């Protein structure tokens, strides 16, 4: 019996404990609900409660911005653009001289120039070149580089046809970059701009983006092979041809003609003026100190 009662007691205790556990659960739930009610209710509590502000739920993350569509009319921005100009222009002669620029920025004073923070690539189309023509071109490029501080890189030969209004961006031919400067030889039958006594022509294409300064990104220089070849065969002719190429390179980097016969940018070839004058060099120094425009 004792055993039986004990068993009955035990059964009662178990039932009570179950009840307690159930009550306990109810109690805990009540505390939570009440606590929540107290904490979220209006103020005026009789005791101090430090309520730590819960972090606001994170807003749903915005969808990632759409990938900017790659522009199709130009290469990726800032190719080969260094943080600083790659070279330093030579100090211009103290006396100054006459010079003029082909293009000016919006301020009406600053010339349009090549970006000095990136190299100027150039290619040669040797078709129709007179014997000895190519070394003269490289020597003249080196001279312009020396005066302006602009860095030129010879990319080799190209069979791109010479044209003054060629596209500035030709990814099929030159890859995803601005087309290099194209230098070549033609006759006036091929290029009407060389008609008459014109022995060369050169110019560069300027681009800008938004409010950026305009910069030249490529250009074309064409020399009149039938007129230049006989000059090369004359005594002292090489210096004259070098002067012609220098004059055209002056145009390429942004110099315009001047009405001063002591300067190489005078429109007529002069046997006695075979090197850059003081004004030419002053203008070239300014053209070597243009803006770096990495957004292009
Ligand atoms: Zn000219």
Task: Describe the protein's architecture and organization.
The protein is of the alpha/beta class and 296 residues long. The protein has 2 domains: 1-41; 113-287, Collagenase (Catalytic Domain) (3-Layer(aba) Sandwich). Helix content is 32%, strand content 13%. It has helices spanning 2-40, 133-148, 171-174, 225-233, 237-253, 278-287; strands at residues 113-114, 120-125, 152-157, 181-186, 200-207, 215-224. Strands 1, 2, 3, 4, 5 and 6 form a 6-stranded mixed β-sheet that branches. The protein is globular and about 90 Å long. The termini are far apart. The model is unreliable at 1-9 and 23-47 (pLDDT under 50). Bound molecules: zinc ion.
- Remind me, CATH topology of the largest domain? Collagenase (Catalytic Domain)
Secondary-structure element series: HEEHEHEEEHHH
* Secondary-structure-derived class: alpha/beta
Largest beta sheet, briefly?
6 strands, mixed
- Poorly predicted parts: 1-9, 23-47
Distance, first to last CA: 102 Å
Number of strands: 6
Helical percentage: 25-40%
Rg of Cα set: 40 Å
**General shape:** globular
Tell me the CATH superfamily of the largest domain: Collagenase (Catalytic Domain)
Bound molecules: zinc ion
Total domains, how many? 2
Mean pLDDT: 85
CATH top level assignment of the largest domain: Alpha Beta
Beta fraction: 5-15%
CATH architectural type of the largest domain: 3-Layer(aba) Sandwich
